[in-house]
């Protein structure tokens, strides 16, 4: 009797005839993505590459660009006003954390505890976001005016006036207060959605055990959204590090360069001094720092998903 072992034949390898059909199948999907990819490359990555190239050039759109090596970066590191703008930016970021970061969290927690009129409170908190910036800046110029409502109230109770727009000690804080009032609503809605997603059974069990409102917030609400708080913290650091619009529109970097942030200094180099090479070098340095913050953000996001 023949005991020869029969080895089963391997399935035939995929023929090349299947490949065109797969390419056509997935290719139709890439065609739908092509417009978005083209826009992404043209308006995001191409400007980044051009900015890196310009940072090593003396940019002249009339006579043509010439390579200068690291001269633009040397100018950045030797310009004392840029050092001051970095300090102002860090101060601005710190004020945004101290004054503005906790406001949407507090409002979200407070609104979540309200049993009635919760929808109306959401709308009221978000309304400042829809105010056009031109109207916003004009409104707060009037509020901060020496004869505006704040100083009128201070004089009425016997206190001295505060020169919000001309006193270097108050100018940056004044801008942060204005921006916090205008933009906290959008972050508040994000926090509120996270708070409302916490299981109600936890709160009911805590109430049965006799936990008050502060105990529920401390031991249930805040621990449940701590991952979101960390993510929003990184996002705010990235956003505030690029801030310049209110500093430019309200005070143009004054008084005495007290609100001259790093982003505004880039704008000044590019569009006032027309020195696009140094402005590009400053932009590249900011890009490196923000990339590090973005990597931290992604890692925090991945840890939150686990």
From TrEMBL:
Region of interest (Disordered), ranges: 1-21
The protein, known as: Sugar ABC transporter permease
Chief location of this protein within or outside the cell: membrane
Bilayer topology annotation: Multi-pass membrane protein
GO terms under cellular component: plasma membrane
CDD domains per record: TM_PBP2
InterPro entries according to UniProt: ABC_transporter_permease, MetI-like, MetI-like_sf
Record's subcellular location: Cell membrane
Stretches that traverse the bilayer: 28-48, 90-111, 123-143, 180-199, 220-239, 274-296
PANTHER family: ABC TRANSPORTER PERMEASE PROTEIN, DIACETYLCHITOBIOSE UPTAKE SYSTEM PERMEASE PROTEIN NGCF
Organism phylogeny: Bacteria, Bacillati, Bacillota, Bacilli, Bacillales
Domain annotation ABC transmembrane type-1: ranges: 86-297
GO terms classed as biological process: transmembrane transport
Signal peptide bounds: none
The UniProt record lists the keyword RNA-binding: no
Keyword Protease included in the entry's annotation: no
Similarity section: Belongs to the binding-protein-dependent transport system permease family.
Keywords: Cell membrane, Membrane, Transmembrane, Transmembrane helix, Transport
Highest taxon of source: Bacteria
